[in-house]
Amino acid sequence: MTKKRILILVGTTEGRHLAYQASQRSDIEAIASLAGRTRQPDPPIANTRFGGFGGVSGLRDYLQEQGIEALIDATHPFAAQISIHGVLAAREAGVPHLRLSRPPWSPQPGDRWLDVSSNAEAAERLPEVAQRVFLTIGRQELAKFASLQQLWFLMRMIDPPHEETPIPPGKILLARGPFSLDEERSLLQEYQIGAIVSKNSGGEATYAKLVAARELGIPVVMVQRPTMPEMETVSDINQVLDWLDCLVGMS
Ligand code: NAP
Fold first, then answer.
1. Residues 68, 92: Cα–Cα separation, whole Å
2. Residue 237 in contact with residue 245, Cβ under 8 Å?
3. Which of 24, 100, 161, 203 could pair covalently with 74 via S-S, beta carbons 3.0-4.6 A apart?
4. For ligand 1, mutation pick of 75, 102, 162 (most atoms within 8 Å of CB)
5. Over 60: is that where the pLDDT of 39 sits?
6. pTM to 2 decimals?
7. Number of domains into which the chain is organized
8. Is residue 125 pLDDT above 90, yes or no?
9. What is the DSSP string of 110-163?
10. 106 lines ligand 1 (CB under 6 A)
11. Is residue 16 in some structural domain?
12. Using one digit for the tens of pLDDT, what is the confidence trace for 7-34?
């Protein structure tokens, strides 16, 4: 049987699991593409490439040169650039395209969310919300909060910020989810947090902080997802596997 050659743009836990599951199939040859920040994906993926393609044209050329027969975008909901490049490049190369994206969180009774469209807007609104802030947006956009010298921040991220990144006053906490409700509740209480800033990433691994905030009546400044062009999107791995079954069945 000739295997279908597919490219999976990976950038989330479910993306890594999808790439692993696809790599176990006898009817598919899956190549996993990572931006290059994580050197050892977990679970391990056999056929992996690292680093950018060089924009839409670079990705289109890669699809054509490598004989890719389907492109699956399993990157993070906030990684807008690669997702836009993916859908455009697939269109130009005439390759079927599917996006795997977790559903966003939605507010529950008792939640006190302030929706904002960007980290810059979150920084602008924060002084009217609280003095002590739990900042859970990762390390890439810390600089947006650096001018808020009158506030105090507990900043949680997986890897430390680059040395040259301007950061606001406070403490950096290096940690990787999932986080339990007990852990999140303790953190909020120990550091006397008055507000959380979060991206609406969705998923279970980092949801407990929102439950803890609800219990303690703490407001959450919630950064909404970037706008994406129309594209076929599913929310779980099984739907991608079904889509792949159809694709394989058609050949
Ligand atoms: P981005 O702004 O959408 O992408 C920036 C550039 O990085 C892209 O144009 C592309 O370079 C390259 N790139 C990104 N993902 C790639 C992949 N899977 N394979 C090959 N090249 C990739 O992305 P970002 O927000 O910097 O995030 C980088 C990676 O971290 C993504 O894969 C994302 O899924 C993951 N991540 C992001 C967040 C977040 O909040 N943004 C959170 C968790 C994980 P070229 O244009 O040169 O092809």
1. 13
2. no
3. 100
4. 75
5. no
6. 0.93
7. 2
8. yes
9. T--EEEESSHHHHHHHGGGT-SEEEEES-STTGGGGTT-TTSEEEEEESSPPPT
10. no
11. yes
12. 999 999 899 999 999 999 999 999 999 9
Atom of ligand 1 nearest to the CA of 58: 48
Does ligand 1 come within 6 angstroms of the Cβ of 82?
yes
Q: What is the pLDDT of residues 188-228, one digit of tens each?
A: 999 999 999 999 999 999 999 999 999 999 999 999 999 99
CATH at residue 205? 3.40.50.720
Confirm if 162 and 248 have CB atoms less than 8 A apart.
Answer: no
* pLDDT tens digits, 47-70: 999 999 999 999 999 999 999 999
- Angle made by CA atoms 175, 179, 184, in degrees to the nearest 5: 100
Residue 1 CA to ligand 1 center (angstroms) comes to 34
- Looking at the fold, whether 218 and 238 belong to one and the same domain comes out as no
What is d(CA 136, CA 189) in angstroms, rounded to the nearest whole number?
16
